[in-house]
Design goal:
The chain has 219 residues and is of the alpha+beta class. The protein has helices at residues 22-33, 84-92, 106-112, 175-184, and strands at 10-18, 41-43, 48-54, 60-66, 95-103, 119-123, 129-133, 147-151, 164-172, 192-195, 203-210, 213-218. It has a domain at 10-161: 2,3-Dihydroxybiphenyl 1,2-Dioxygenase, domain 1 (Roll), CATH 3.10.180. Strands 2-3-4-1-5-8-7-6 form an 8-stranded mixed beta sheet. Strands 10-9-11-12 form a 4-stranded mixed beta sheet, with helices on one face.
C-alpha cells in the first residue's frame, strides 16, 4: 500500500451485531435499546437476513444472522458468520462483530490498498451495492478493520427512534497497525485504539445514546 491517505471520501456506515438466531437477537436488541425493529431484510447473495436501526444521519446498526431458509453462497458469508470463532461467540449472546465503512469509489480504494480488503461482491439486496469481504470471510484484525461498501442507500429512509451513535473504541496488541490501515481507508480516528497485551486478542465496544441513556455494544 502507498503511504498516502486515499482521497476517496469514507465514513462509518453501520455497526454490525451478530446473533445466532435473528428472532431471539431481535428480542434482545429491542429490550436492550428500547426500540422496535421492523421488516426483516434478506440478503440471498450472502445467505443472511437482518434488521436495521437508524443510529445517526448517515449511520445504522445491523442485526444479522445466517438465514436457515437461504442457500449458502459459493464463498464465505460476510462478517465471519461461517467461522467457528464467530459462531461460538454469537451463540452465547448477540455481539458486535464488525463494522462497515462507506466510500464513494470502492473500486479505486480496493486497487490502491492492494486488495487488502479481500474480494469485491455485487450485492443485490436489500439495496444494490458493491462490498468487500475477506477471502476467508473472517473479519480483518478481528473486526477492527471494516468491510467497505459503495451504495446509494440513504440511512434517512429508516425510521428515527432517537438512538444515536456516539463513539467506539477497541484494544489491539498493535494499535499502530490498525491506525495505519484505517488511515489508508480514509477512516482515521473513527475508532479510538488502545494497546492490549500480546496474545490477548482484540476487543471492541460501541456506544449509542438512547432515550434511556447511553448503552454499550460489546464484542
Amino acid at each position: 500500500m502507498s503511504n498516502t491517505i486515499l482521497s476517496t471520501s469514507s465514513h462509518l456506515h453501520r455497526l454490525v451485531i451478530g446473533t445466532h438466531q435473528l428472532a431471539r437477537g431481535k428480542v434482545w436488541l429491542e429490550k436492550f435499546l428500547n426500540v422496535k425493529l421492523h421488516a426483516v431484510v434478506p440478503s440471498d447473495d450472502m445467505g443472511t437476513h437482518s434488521y436495521y436501526l437508524r443510529i445517526g444521519e448517515t449511520t445504522s446498526l445491523e442485526l444479522i444472522a445466517v438465514n436457515p431458509q437461504s442457500r449458502a453462497p459459493n464463498y464465505p458469508r460476510w462478517f465471519g458468520l461461517d467461522t467457528e470463532d464467530v459462531i461460538e461467540r454469537i451463540s452465547q449472546r448477540p455481539r458486535l462483530i464488525g463494522w462497515v465503512g462507506r466510500t464513494n469509489s470502492l473500486a479505486a480504494l480496493h486497487e490502491r490498498t492492494g486488495e487488502l480488503l479481500g474480494d469485491l461482491h455485487e450485492i443485490s439486496a436489500p439495496t444494490p451495492c458493491l462490498m468487500t469481504s475477506p477471502h476467508d470471510g473472517y473479519p480483518l484484525e478481528g473486526g477492527l478493520i471494516p468491510q467497505m461498501l459503495q451504495t446509494n442507500f440513504s440511512t434517512a429512509a429508516l425510521p428515527d427512534q432517537g438512538v444515536r451513535f456516539t463513539w467506539m473504541e477497541a484494544a489491539h496488541p498493535n494499535p499502530a497497525k490498525v491506525e495505519y490501515l484505517l488511515s489508508e481507508l480514509g477512516l482515521a480516528k473513527t475508532l479510538v485504539l488502545t494497546s492490549s497485551p500480546p496474545y490477548a486478542g482484540m476487543t471492541m465496544c460501541a456506544y449509542v445514546d438512547t432515550p434511556n441513556g447511553v448503552k454499550t455494544l460489546m464484542s
